[in-house]
Amino acid sequence: MSDDDAGRSPYTLQHEDDETRHAFWADTVADRVEERVADRDDDEKNPDVVIKGGISPSGVPHLGNVNEIMRGYFVAEVLRDRGYEVRQVFTADDRDPLRKLPRTLCNLDGELVDLGEVDAGALGRNLGHPYTDIPDPFGCCDSYGDHFSQIIRDSADAVDVPIDMVSTTDLYEDGEFDDVTRHVLENRDRAREILAEYQDKVNEDYVPFNPVCENCGKITETVTSVDVGSEERRSSDSQAEREASRETGDVTPTVDYRCTDLDAGDRTIEGCGHEGTATLREGKMPWRFEWPAQWQVLGVDFEPFGKDHAEGSWPSGDDVARNVLEIEPPVPMVYEWFTLDGEPFSSSEGNVILVSDVLELLEPEVLRYFFAKDPSRARDFSIERLDQLVDEFDRFEAIYFDEVEEATEDERAFAERVYPFVVEDPREERIRLPYTFAAVLGMTDDPDLREEIARREGHIPDDAPEWAVEDALARVERARNWARRTENEFDYELKRTAIPDHEFDAATEAALAELANFIEEGHGAEEIQGEIYETAKRHDVAVGEFFGAGYRLFFDEEQGPQLGPFLAKVDREFVVARLRRER
């Protein structure tokens, strides 16, 4: 990377004057990753491209956390398309201490639960302990940290993204972090000097290592002395000899510590006061050193992250990487957070949705499309307006298959480039029922009726292959779930098997019979809607009451969807018989 690149804003989608413009943002990022790879020394060990994301197990892993997985995935796919071998890793920072009790947790079935529904004591007794040392409150995984990581794996699997989940605890305990941790401690004066530029309360006694207290199991930040061994001995040792010395315990670096209180925001987690000694595998580096250490140990070439890191952790991470670890930081990319129904994601406030929940409402390819859009723009993921996102995807897909005449040049370029990354097996014969139409079909449980109406309305061609019909009708259940979740205008159930209880006066009964005759003649949606008004007026029935009679007969409700268009979609024989109260 050039000196100019070193000063580049991490908002990597800000174009330079001489930069190639792409239809897809991931191509722009991939260009920069290729530049980095081309600058590698021939003797560097890792021939592959490594893309990383990461998360701390501090809350429910919700849809917003999938940002790093999906942003990394698209860049990985572009690079694979260019012939590179790519490994996409995702780190769980599970040696971090639990600093406060979450209000909401998530089981492995993707269901949100309150603390009262699990063994909350498993968490409450272990404040200040690393996540991987805390029992799983659900009792299904080896630890709370493992439980959290499994949900991330499941989320990635659900959107068909292959990630290698890496436990930070494992990196410490397996010795992968030994060399980089020792290097940081050897250069702790320089580390302290750099950190002081980004963080207050860095005094002359600061040591960038947090041991795990052998007495109480909590993380402590008070190191009283450091012994990293003989510099002369280590510099003369071969790599094999250094590894052997670790195994035998010879010249093992250690720190002495005192277990003191741990700051946890507006509260304090009390230390036990124990004084002891810890090896480098019995603790962790603070986050601002641990993140760059991950880059070094895992050989990271590219990492996307939220804008909160761009303003805090990234500048210090870049500085630590260059001036303490003496490595080149990876290519960065900042993405904008998106909101959920106009509000920030918040586990404590209950404003979260899980990937598993979303995939009950729309197809995985629609969700992948959402993440394929420009990450430098703030967006809202609206459950209320999910039909708009699905319609947008359907148009995007139709543009790819050259089925939209008025598409712009930019729309065509984007669809041509991105669609194969969003849909694994593009097939022109696919059928997409309009989402709100699918919600209308969801008012009935009868699968044959759903298909009959879809065919009659022209959404399923006579010659459609069976797989396409099945895929098309699968959207009905998702749209029905959406209607029920949002309690919108489609959240009604057609009472087809039996006539709901009702009691109408003579004028209303006569008006219903007349409306039945009109529909039996064969008329369209707008004509039926207009006739409902006119029939009510002719029989001196209040229009609202007449609509209410229709809703009672068909839904056993006092209100419902726009009645005329709905009745036009349901099979005519049934509608006529129901209006006549015959079945």
TrEMBL record:
Gene expressing this chain: lysK
Record-level Gene Ontology MF annotations: ATP binding; lysine-tRNA ligase activity; tRNA binding
Reactions mediated catalytically: tRNA(Lys) + L-lysine + ATP = L-lysyl-tRNA(Lys) + AMP + diphosphate
Composition bias, Basic and acidic residues: 230-249
Classification via InterPro entries: aa-tRNA-synth_I_codon-bd_sub2 (IPR020751), aa-tRNA-synth_I_CS (IPR001412), aa_tRNA-synth_I_cd-bd_sf (IPR008925), Lys-tRNA-ligase (IPR002904), Lys-tRNA-ligase_SC_fold (IPR042078), Rossmann-like_a/b/a_fold (IPR014729)
UniProt superkingdom: Archaea
UniProt keyword terms in alphabetical order: Aminoacyl-tRNA synthetase, ATP-binding, Cytoplasm, Ligase, Nucleotide-binding, Protein biosynthesis
UniProt family annotation: Belongs to the class-I aminoacyl-tRNA synthetase family.
Name used for this protein in its record: Lysine--tRNA ligase
Short motif 'HIGH' region, span: 57-65
EC class (word): ligase
Localization per Swiss-Prot or TrEMBL: Cytoplasm
Keyword tRNA processing included in the entry's annotation: no
GO terms classed as biological process: lysyl-tRNA aminoacylation
